[in-house]
Amino acid sequence: MDYDVRDIKLADQGKLKIEWAEATMPVLRLIRKRFQRQQPLKGVRVTACLHVTTETANLAITLKAGGADVRLCASNPLSTQDDVAAALVQHEGIPTFAIKGEDNTTYYRHIESAIGHRPHVTMDDGADVVSHLHSKRKDLLRNVIGGTEETTTGVIRLRSMAEKKVLKFPVISVNDADTKHMFDNRYGTGQSTMDGIVRATNRLVCGSVVVVVGYGWCGRGIAMRAKGMGADVIVTEIDPLKGLEAVMDGFRVMPMEQAAPVGDFFVTVTGNIHVIRGEHFAAMKDGAIVCNSGHFNVELDIPALEKLARKRKIIRTGVEQFTLKNGHRVSLLGEGRLVNLATAEGHPSSVMDMSFANQALGAEYIVKNYKMLEKKVYPVPPAIDKEIARLKLAGMGVSIDKLTKEQEKYLASWEMGT
């Protein structure tokens, strides 16, 4: 079997971690049992470019249980858990191409290896496989019947491709599922981002000023968790509705120009480029800590920070300190990459349970319906979204009410009023 991992001897350690995560992924576990019986992905070649973590491992195992021929590579050079990658190879027989800290050349070589079996279905977190197929490996496009996309940044790229009529196959936007973005983005990103910051720095959040750049679902979650830890939270936004929502949620809202001199911690979650720029770094107080929890590190203008610095050094694992020409020290976490994965372990498995259930069922939907789909980005069908929510509640031991016949009739009628 073809694979490329750091050390295959880490496999037993990784297997235990995968089992630990699986214990709080009841939805994916139920899907796996059905997949084993029904084999809906039998003979389907799936290339998955995702964060190689314990949760992703359980998704890959589920896809294989459904009959898929799965190959996995990393969607970020710093997010791989090397023991998990080894376990997937050694214990599950899933070709995996991922090494934590891999350079750019290795990253794209791993993508090439992952598409080496000529995939029918792509599974992306950031659209790198789709982009690579459309730009570098057009010869493989004729095999692809569809794909799924995990994150906001990837969906933005795919919608741009669809609008420009260059997207060659349909893609399901897993990120737009309510059971993904309302939970994974908010609760997962909120907790894991603060976890990454604390693990990397061991700084006290309570009493500090945390600047959250962007108030989408991820920004909401981070602001909520930082506030819960005792921080004074500032939000920066470009959208007046989101800015207003942040004010109504009890946060200070201001432009980055005003936030830069007062923040102790800065976290970007916008999906856009250079939202913290040179002029902002130059205005920061001594000791400011900057990180990114969006998919790509371009949210931070790192080249501008490097130009402002008169010296730089790795002061802790995952922490690079830049001493600016004015003497102020600004620390960058995790090379500006996803801080929750670069310096921590990513989202808790219980929330990824829903996200990866969407991935598994999205792949099944593509296989069943691709002939009827156009070459564009589709939302997860509402029936799948609600079924995942139902299964999650059941897995948590929570019951909800059902409509009575009278209530169903009332909701379907127009005759009954005040």
UniProtKB/TrEMBL annotation:
SUPFAM superfamilies: Formate/glycerate dehydrogenase catalytic domain-like (SSF52283), NAD(P)-binding Rossmann-fold domains (SSF51735). One of its GO terms (molecular function) is adenosylhomocysteinase activity. Residues 185-346 form the S-adenosyl-L-homocysteine hydrolase NAD binding domain. Keywords: Cytoplasm, Hydrolase, NAD, One-carbon metabolism. Pathway: Amino-acid biosynthesis; L-homocysteine biosynthesis; L-homocysteine from S-adenosyl-L-homocysteine: step 1/1. Its EC number is 3.13.2.1. Its main location: cytoplasm. Substrate binds at T53, D125, E150, K180, D184. Its cofactor is NAD(+). Binds 1 NAD(+) per subunit. GO terms for cellular component: cytosol. The keyword Hydrolase applies. It is found in: Cytoplasm. NAD(+) binds at residues 151-153, 185, 214-221, 237, 272, 293-295, 340, 347. It comes from the Bacteria. Pfam families: AdoHcyase, AdoHcyase_NAD. It catalyses: S-adenosyl-L-homocysteine + H2O = L-homocysteine + adenosine. Transmembrane segments: none annotated. PROSITE patterns: ADOHCYASE_1, ADOHCYASE_2. NCBIfam families: ahcY, PRK05476.2-3. Belongs to the adenosylhomocysteinase family. May play a key role in the regulation of the intracellular concentration of adenosylhomocysteine. This is Adenosylhomocysteinase. It comes from Nitrospira moscoviensis.
